[in-house]
């Protein structure tokens, strides 16, 4: 998971094109995750096989669409959290970290802990539209993380 600062407008065509492209490529490489944009703050959680994930993170770190990237957490997980989401995306709609934490101390997305950000993502993901599901068989509510067998 990392946090960065967007150099494009929240809810803009650039943001949506980026999310669509990310979904298409992630589906190809078996990567899943969640991308949230709130104001100029970007938080992205990525999971999947190490090699494509490391390659993608290198691309993202060099991407001129954002700046001030800081890695918040990185490691090996026993399983996926966003299985079935080639990239869940909330970036300009009504979904707000600050709003969901209004009654708590850690409402500031720029200071929030990894756990708080993950809780937020897991809370939001069932309600997100599965915009452009990738053709390779990623479905928004698939719970199994096993690779699909081909006939
Ligand atoms: C905030 C942000 C998040 C991104 N997330 C992804 C992603 O999840 N998957 C992806 O393939 N590209 C993502 N990109 C785009 C990559 O930076 C890069 O453009 C993409 O991997 C294409 O690289 P290529 O032209 O070398 O194939 C993201 C870019 C930004 C700015």
Could you describe the 3D structure shown?
This protein is an alpha+beta fold. It has one domain: Alpha-Beta Plaits (2-Layer Sandwich). The protein is built from four helices and five strands, in the order βαββαββαα. Strands 4-1-3-2-5 form a five-stranded mixed sheet, with helices on both faces. A hairpin with a 2-residue loop joins strand 2 and strand 3. The longest helix is centred in the first third of the chain and has 17 residues. It is globular, with a radius of gyration of 15 Å. The C terminus is likely disordered. Bound molecules: flavin mononucleotide.
Short overview:
The protein has 151 residues and is α+β, with helices and mostly antiparallel strands. It contains four helices and five strands, in the order E-H-E-E-H-E-E-H-H.
Structural class: alpha+beta
Please give the alpha-carbon distance between the first and last residues: 35 Å
Name the ligand types: flavin mononucleotide
Strand order of the largest sheet: 4-1-3-2-5
Q: What CATH first level would be assigned?
A: Alpha Beta
List the helices and strands in order.
EHEEHEEHH
Low-confidence runs of at least 5 consecutive residues: 132-151
Strand proportion, as a percent range, falls in 15-25%
Question: What share of residues is helical?
Answer: 25-40%
What are the defining features of this structure?
151 residues, alpha+beta, Alpha-Beta Plaits, five-stranded mixed beta sheet, 4 helices, 5 strands, binds flavin mononucleotide
């Amino acid at each position: 998971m990392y946090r960065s600062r967007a150099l494009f407008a929240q809810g803009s065509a650039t943001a949506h094109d980026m999310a669509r492209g990310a979904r298409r490529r992630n589906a190809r490489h078996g990567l899943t995750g969640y991308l949230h944009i709130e104001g100029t703050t970007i938080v992205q959680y990525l999971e999947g096989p190490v090699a494509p994930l490391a390659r993608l993170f290198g691309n993202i770190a060099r991407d001129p669409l954002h700046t001030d990237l800081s890695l918040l957490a990185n490691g090996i997980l026993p399983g996926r959290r966003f299985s079935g989401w080639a990239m869940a995306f909330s970036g300009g709609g009504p979904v707000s970290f600050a709003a969901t934490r209004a009654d708590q101390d850690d409402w500031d997305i720029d200071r929030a802990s990894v756990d708080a950000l993950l809780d937020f993502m897991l809370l939001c993901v069932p309600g997100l539209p599965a915009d452009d599901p990738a053709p390779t068989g990623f479905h928004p509510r698939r719970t199994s993380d096993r690779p699909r067998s081909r006939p």
